[in-house]
Amino acid sequence: MRDWPDLYLMRHGQTEWNVQGRMQGRLDSLLTPLGVMQARRQGWLVRDLRGLTRHASTAGRAQQTARIVFAGQDFVSDERLHEIDIGDFTGRLWHELRAERPELFAGGGLDWYDRAPQGEHFAGLEARVRSFLQDLTAPALIVTHGITLRMIRLVAMGLPRERLAEMPVAQGALHLVSRGRHRMFF
């Protein structure tokens, strides 16, 4: 397992589509008032960290979160931190899709992301995340998305893809991956 720099990972704050149960993928929606409070909380959690590079997904919800978290400090926007592309499922309501295609959601895990028609699938996301991590030369603060955050942790911790669903992610939390181990702070 490679020894990656310390990673301070954050998921964007709650969005309007999160509340609606609408799957965003490559589309976007604004942060809710709770999402703004979650981003402020993350900013408070990282307030004393110095000398780290700052990165964010190019998605609007991650950019909005990063502007709050980084409180006016510069950060690098990187397409490789964007959420997994869920193809034909983008913009769909979760409960409607589950009713239409129950076979895709059997077992209740995250495997449906890997079967989304016209989607990126896990292999594409993993390659994108690995490329991002290989370019890091210093500890980093990163604002990204739920599935992408899980994949970053999976790669950084040297775990097999089958463990992706075991990775908890919380909006408003700070995930630290250091020396192959994970800790979460609220």
The residue-averaged pLDDT reads 95
Q: Largest sheet at a glance?
A: 6 strands, mixed
Assign an overall shape: globular
Number of strands: 6
| Global Rg | 16 Å
Oligomeric state of the chains present here: single chain
| CATH overall fold name | Rossmann fold
Name of the CATH homologous superfamily: Phosphoglycerate mutase-like
CATH architecture descriptor text: 3-Layer(aba) Sandwich
Main β-sheet, spatial strand arrangement: 3-2-4-1-5-6
Write the layout of secondary structure elements.
Blueprint: E1 7-11, H1 16-20, H2 33-46, E2 53-56, H3 60-69, E3 76-77, H4 94-100, H5 121-135, E4 140-144, H6 146-156, E5 174-178, E6 181-185
Parallel strand pairs: 1-4, 2-3, 2-4
Antiparallel strand pairs: 1-5, 5-6
Helix pairs in contact: 2-3, 5-6
